[in-house]
Amino acid sequence: MSEPITYASAGVDVEAGDRAVELMKAHIEATHGPQVMGGVGAFAGLYDASELKRLPSPLLATSTDGVGTKVAIAQAMDKHDTIGFDLVGMVVDDIVVMGAKPLFMTDYIACGKVEPTRIADIVSGIAKASAEAGTALVGGETAEHPGLLGEHEYDVAGAATGVVDASAVLGPERVRAGDVVIGMKASGIHSNGYSLVRRVISSAGWDWSREVPEFGRTLGEELLEPTRLYTQPCLDLITALNGDPTEGPLGEDLPVRGFSHVTGGGLAANLARVLPHGLMATVDRSTWSWPAVFSVVAELGGVPQADLERTLNLGVGMVAVVAPEKADAAVAHLNAAGQSAWVMGEVSEYSPEDVSGADDDFVQGAKGVDGGGVLLRGSYA
Q: Which residues form the PurM-like N-terminal domain (predicted)?
């Protein structure tokens, strides 16, 4: 008689999953405020939404994302405590773009084999970033997929829910000709474009442990630099300039018109999504310089500038569009909050003749949105 087949012999270790939960429990609970009902381990997370009653007309905002092939570098480096930070940034800062405050988040980790310490490291990063964003981590799932993923392979995804009053929603309908475009510094490559980056590194034959003088650390350490979180600086800017909707509905002409989270597709494509049809943002490249990591990737792979611009953030992780009379105040407010920011362009009306011959320097409409246009001018500093 052959040996009986068990779940463990099929490659799933239930006890390892339980150990992982115990290791991550304290990290998760550290993100919980009084609004989180119950503890870790329930079938679903519960969040007390009573505070939403303070808003005249609350709307829920939701977003979901992953971190792409950046996980391959974390696995190669056997360093897993930062990838969760990237996950939170990719999700909650998409919610902030709408003017919404992220309330709670859930995560999903699929792996070939549950290694409790590794899973706990991933979740510790998620929890740390959630706490910084003021977002409760209310639940998650770790799934073991032997035969589908390798023993040391995993992928992560997450979803968050936020709230914004209907009078405070930001977006293209608020943007006007004459508005000012403000850039906010990125911490590095963030979590987009790693298929390009990994291809460049592989073609060059570089190892992740290679010391790179321009970085002052190893290549792998530089590429695993966590995604910067813009949640609190952006929310604070909204409150400072637009007002607090809990005190009553906001007016029509809000000084902070909108934000653009610079993720996949690069600066121009993402900025175009938050501009109305018929308006164009002209962005001056000379207002900032590339962080070293982008210059190294460009030179090492001979990557054309146009390809870099439509793939990587090139040092700009978030963009704000504000009324011209409040531009200086917005920049000052962001810098005082520790978020490096600067004026990088302005919004104007345009016609097709204005961008004739611009070619790759001009983007109009992106990611299914038939919105405004973005023209990149000049050379980088």
A: 59-164
Tokens 């800062």 locate to: 93
Nearest to 190 by CA among 229, 230, 227, 231: 227
Q: d(Cα 278, Cα 293) in Å, to the nearest integer?
A: 35
Mean pLDDT across the stretch 298-305?
96
Nearest to 271 by CA among 262, 186, 351, 378: 262
3-state secondary structure 284-321: EHHHCCCCHHHHHHHHHHCCCHHHHHCCCCCCEEEEEE
Which phi and psi (to 5°) does residue 109 adopt? -120, 120
Q: What backbone phi and psi angles, to 5 degrees, belong to 68?
A: 65, -150
Q: What is the pLDDT of residue 14?
A: 65
> Domain spanning 172-377: which CATH class is it, in words?
alpha beta
Digit-coded pLDDT (tens) for 340-351: 999 999 999 998
pTM for this entry: 0.92
Architecture of domain 14-168: 2-Layer Sandwich (3.30)
DSSP assigned state of 360: G
Residue closest to 326 by CA, chosen among 144, 147, 179, 132: 179
* CA–centroid distance for 171 within its chain: 18
Q: Where are the domains of the chain?
A: 14-168, 172-377
Cα atoms in the Cβ-side hemisphere of radius 13 Å centred on 202: 9
